[in-house]
Each structure stands twice: as C-alpha cells, then as structure tokens.
Amino acid sequence: MVDGPVVAVRGEAYREVAPELARFRVTASARDRDRETTLTRLAERAAAVRALLDSADVDRRETGEVQVYPLTKRSGERVVAYQGRVTTTVTVTDFTALGELMLRLADQDQIEVAGPWWSLRPDSPVYRQARHAAITDALVRAREYAEALGARVTALVELADSGLNPQPMMTRAAFTMGGAVEDGRPELDLDPQPQSVQASVEARFTISEPVLN
C-alpha cells in the first residue's frame, strides 16, 4: 500500500533515424510449351541470379518461393504451356551500390525486381534509446506536476511499458532515374526512407505533501 499522494503520468519518446536494412525481391521466370525446356530455362536464370549475387556485397539471401505449374485452356485440362518462378529475397546493409545491383539484376532475361523495403535491425540500439527517453519524459512530467502543486517527487511506485512501435514512414523507396553512366548503362539513385520509432511508458510516483494555497 502506498502512503501519501501519487502522481500518474505517461512518458513518450519519438525518434526518426536512417534505415539500417534494405530488402528487395528478385523473381526469375520461365515459360514454354515443353516442361523440360521450362525447367531448364528456370534453372539457368536462377543460377544467373545467384552468380550475380555472389559477386555483390549482400548480407543475406533467401529462396522464398519456387513455383512450377501447367497452364491449361479454360475449356478443359489440356496443358498448353508450363510456367515456373523462383523468388529470392535479398538483404543488404550497404546502400551505396544498391541501385546498381537492382539494375544489374533487372537487366537479366525474364527477371523481375521489386523493392526495396527499408527497416531497422531487430536489435537496433535505437529501440533502447527510445525506451530510455520515454522514461526520462515520464520523470520530467511527474516533476512538473509535483512542482505545480508545491511538492516534489519522492519515489517510483510503478513503471509499465506501454509499447515500442517502429513505424516506417514508407515501405518502398522513392527513386529517380539519373543520367547514363560512363559505360552507357542507366543509373538508379535510391533515397532511403527514414524510420520512426515511438516508445511509451506509464509511471506512478509518490510525491511529498502538496502546498495548496
């Protein structure tokens, strides 16, 4: 049981920082009337993607989906062609050559590139900084309320985490096509989207007896 008056406050903090990760998807496709030809082309294009990624500075790549299926006429089950797709998700932390890498991949035959999507690392220190700032804000508010009453904060009674909410401002990058580079290839300039992180806490403090006039 708490003796004396108590002030309850909510502390909040907001941080807007540069992203730490960029992810994009690369999908290799193949289609032909012959199933073996479709599979061969799909394997060759997927291998070309892997070779290009092997030569690039990527932090992680994951094969997320492989699809091979027949295409039939609407009126029946007669197969008219075979379709195949292999999707790879790529994660990078060095953004300097990201646009060039995406263009090089998109320049391959029957390759689709989507993204990038920006984010923070799950263990980013930004989250810890936001939590600490939210606690500081709660304490400042409590002291301000106590001061308005002619009192002072004496002890912490309870502290509860209201949540830490990362809020990317946008899920996709805004990009512009620049002029041609020296070798004649187009240049893709990417603008990483800032990431916002919001933390909040609820706290209860005991205060000294107010001086009420």
TrEMBL record:
Stated name of the protein: SIMPL domain-containing protein
Species: Micromonospora yangpuensis
InterPro entries cross-referenced by the UniProt entry: 26kDa_periplasmic_antigen, SIMPL/DUF541
Biological process, per Gene Ontology: DNA damage response
Pfam families, sorted: SIMPL
